[in-house]
From TrEMBL, chains A, B:
Source organism per UniProt: Saccharomonospora piscinae
Pfam families for the chain: AIRS
Catalytic activity: thiamine phosphate + ATP = thiamine diphosphate + ADP
HAMAP family per UniProt: TMP_kinase
Protein name: Thiamine-monophosphate kinase
EC number: 2.7.4.16
Enzyme class (EC, first level): transferase
Misc: Reaction mechanism of ThiL seems to utilize a direct, inline transfer of the gamma-phosphate of ATP to TMP rather than a phosphorylated enzyme intermediate.
Length: 322, 322
């Protein structure tokens, strides 16, 4: 067992499970919601609401990230961010995460430490405690994160509450991660802004609870792509949704990248996943909180998700197994 | 996407992520603590105490289990049981679990379904909801489970509260999983009782909260082996512990297996992991709850863990990475 920082030649095998767990959790600052931090059989976290929101999402090397495209720190941040976005999409404020890290025994200890540094950094950025972890050996690097959140006395905002006549709004970036993926796929490493958006999303965590307070009727985290995730929301709510492209801002940076690569930036905005923006429906009379932009409306059932009144003709969303 | 049960030729690839998630979560009964079950961005679970206990542990094929030794159902049950034992060891009552399942794309859908059936079966046995999940592709089967629990107004029982003069007690089986591992390692499949103990533990979940109510000063789940885990407790509490072998019951079945294999069954009891019994310390005047047996005493610091007053000479515990 080694208590000091990892040297360049240590691997997770030489460092040992207990040394690694101690190294990545010792001395981390904890928010007031962490009542008992890591090191015991389990942690204790405040749940002042009397209910707790919980979600889990795992990232796998070669499927959800590549360590030649992303730094371990980006990957650690992303594994936390995708979970915190799910908590926000319920209208809750995240309180804590736990992490199960699987990696090959010959993984440099510095890589494992950087992964966990990224986990800690994103958690700290969101005011969330890293309250527990498990380290196991496997063929791939797999980061399984579970996040908890508190509803502060509000009802959870499900996917199923949208009603005809509601407006549809989004908050956060759309299409940036897809543009970054296109850039990386061509072997480029810039523009850094879109490449970094693919490496780690920047979800608007606080905007989920703000939407809940403003009366959001349904909400979802845009992980698979705007049209795909609005499709999930529409199905759960048994409504149709029409998106107006004249309401969708296509950032100048995406236009530039699209021009350079011969790609349609609007397609990235409509179908690109992994940005973890939030999409929600609100009563037509609602005052949208800062950062939320109206992009369409909820319509009568049986029309699915349409774009400017017609079905979108190009493939949208993706599945991990295909 | 397939809604019906998996046929023999389906794989997780052909079934698709969404079909698999739906198949393993749809229609499962939920306990009253599950306020919003699977299917949204996150679930909502009751936390009546205002605090929530949380732990995570992952099992990896080839490291923690072998699918030629265990059925997928055993593995699913074990992945839940090891987490629920950690919740019990804090003195809490488990309320829910979430599961991230990683598996190769060519995994038969029936295997994934049986893994999740095992998860659901052990959760149901403990009155716990399976409230969320994620399915991802990886080289190994990795089951990452996170469990939540409720303290019912009690203080959590940490590892660090043991005091000189306390008694040391255990509840649950010791040495059975190690005996089962020895049997399997020699190529045998019986006696079934010890082999099944290795495939899936039978932790005494209710005995954790009962120990807390009876005034337990420190508690730990015996996952690495009795002496190793008492060592963790002694270190956290800054005390020594002496175990009396005349107090340790060695089951007749373990004596028989030891005789057949030429092994010392007491060594299994003292050092065998994976049974997930509970070990705790109590004030000397405490009335031990049913199922708890005194096996030793807490002594002054600097003596570590001793057996009948002397250091145990044989190696104990194990590390995943070595």
């Amino acid at each position: 067992m080694t208590d000091g920082p990892a040297s360049g030649t240590d691997t997770v095998r030489t460092l040992g499970e207990f040394g690694l767990i101690q190294q990545v959790t010792a001395g981390r600052a904890q928010p007031p919601t962490t009542l008992l931090g890591p090191g015991d059989d389990a942690a204790v976290v405040a749940a002042p609401d009397g209910r707790v929101v919980i979600t889990t999402d795992a990232l796998v090397e070669g499927v959800h990230f590549r360590l030649d495209w992303s730094t371990p720190r980006h990957v650690g941040r992303k594994a936390v961010a995708v979970n915190l976005a799910d908590i926000a999409a319920m209208g809750a404020v995240a309180t804590s995460v736990v992490v199960a890290l699987a990696c090959p025994p010959d993984t440099p200890a510095s890589v494992a430490a950087e992964l966990m540094d990224g986990v800690a950094a994103e958690a700290a950025r969101a005011g969330v405690g890293v309250v527990g972890g498990d380290m196991v050996r496997a063929e791939n690097v797999v980061l399984s994160v579970t996040a908890l959140g508190d509803l502060g006395g509000r009802a959870a905002v499900p996917r199923s509450g949208a009603r005809p006549g509601d407006i549809v709004a989004v908050c956060g970036r759309l299409g940036w991660a897809a543009a970054g993926l296109a850039v990386l796929g061509r072997g480029f490493r810039s523009p850094v802004s879109v490449v970094n958006a693919q490496r780690c999303p920047d979800p608007p965590y606080a905007s989920g609870p703000e939407a809940a307070r403003a009366g959001a009727t349904a909400m979802i985290d845009v992980s698979d792509g705007l049209l795909a995730d609005l499709g999930h929301l529409a199905t759960a709510s048994d409504v149709g949704i029409d998106v107006r492209t004249d309401r969708l801002a296509v950032a100048e940076r995406l236009v530039d990248v699209g021009t350079a690569l011969g790609a349609d930036p609007l397609h990235w905005v409509l179908t690109g996943g992994e940005d973890h923006a939030l999409a929600a429906t609100f009563p037509s009379f609602a005052d949208l909180p800062e950062g939320w932009v109206t992009i369409g409306s909820v319509v009568l059932p049986d029309t699915g998700v349409t774009v400017d009144g017609t079905p979108y003709r190009r493939e949208s969303g993706w599945q991990h197994w295909s």
